[in-house]
Structure prediction request, 147 residues.
Amino acid sequence: MAQMEFVFWYWWVLAFLFLILEMLTPGFFFMWLAVSGLITGLIVWLFPALSLNIQVFIFSVFSVLAVTAWRLYGKKYPVESDQPLLNKRGAQYIGRVFSLYTPIENGQGKIKVDDTLWKVHGEDCDIHTKVKVTGIRGTVFDVEKVG
Prediction:
C-alpha cells in the first residue's frame, strides 16, 4: 500500500477552508486554526521530509497555543462597549419610574413598559401607583414605591 505524501500546500488549503468557516460562523475560533495551518504549511515547505504524524503534531501544538493565547489576551483586554446593556433588555429599565398596570397584591403585580407587560415584585400598592425599578431577577422587576 502506497503511503500518501502530505505536501505543504495541503495545509494552506486547509487554512483557507478554516478561514471560510470563520466567515460563516461567529467568534474567532477557526481563524486561529487557519493561522496554525498556515504556519504548519510554511514549516512543511521548509522541511518537506517531515512525516504526517509530525505535521499533525505541529498543527495541534500551534492550534492549542494560538487559541490559548487569544483567550488570555481577551481576558486581559476585554472589549469595551458603548452600550453595555444592549442585549440586557430588563437591565435597561433599572432606575426608571413607571405606573402600575395592575395593583401589587401579595408582593406581585405588573407594569406596562411601552407595549410589554412586566411582572413586578414589591410592597403592596394600588393600581396607577408610581414605582421605581430597583433590580431584576430573571424576568421579574424588583420595585419600590416612589414618593
User: Anything to note?
Assistant: The chain has a mean pLDDT of 91.
